[in-house]
Fold this protein.
Amino acid sequence: MSVQIVLVHGIRTSATMWRSQCVHLENHGYAATAVDLPGHGTRRDEDFTLHEALHTIDVAVRTAAERGPVLLVGHSMGGLLSLAFTGGADAPPVAGLVAASCTSLPVGAGLAAYRWIARAVDSLPDRGRWISERMLAATIPLETRGDFGAGGYALDVQDIALASLSALDLAVAVERIAVPLWFVNGQYDQLRRHERLFCRLAPHAELIVVPRTTHLVTAMRPRVFNAVLRLAIASLEQRDG
């Protein structure tokens, strides 16, 4: 049975952030499902709750598992949710997990500062769109630059989603994860804050740090990230065989 890939986006963006990965995977014969979390993308008219976000991942994973072993891939908030989901008390049918740009516990001063910055940007006349577009233009190659905003930006639920992440018991969840696990971080990613802790909690995990890359590793270095996905898929195929 072929490996099935489920992709979970980060905050503000949507399933469209994975367009480069979906094309790459489909060109190599792998089925990929990119979900929209509540309040994001095609679901921007919905409220964001942790329960519904985790339920969205659960439905996608269990549906994909009917066709083959599941590689779950999450970025930023999507990575934190995927870690919490995979490390739940009742182990879900996840064969492997790629957790990108999310080795930071969403608690305390770090989370408070992130929320303050997000609120400050959102208070600008254009809700920070000009700044976002300039940052993307400066760091993201043209081929993937439009992917983050193609599904719209989930500005209305951003602060609620950030606040809700503090309820996740990630230390316990990461320690529970027994399946193959890859942490992928950009060299200059601000969410590397607890990278060493995450690696101690999951000593079997492989840490991949992508040089000259920031938080948006999937779009800034799409070929490198796609290669990581192929590595993870090959590892699961070898175990399954």
Observations:
- The mean pLDDT is 91.
- The chain has eleven helices and six strands.
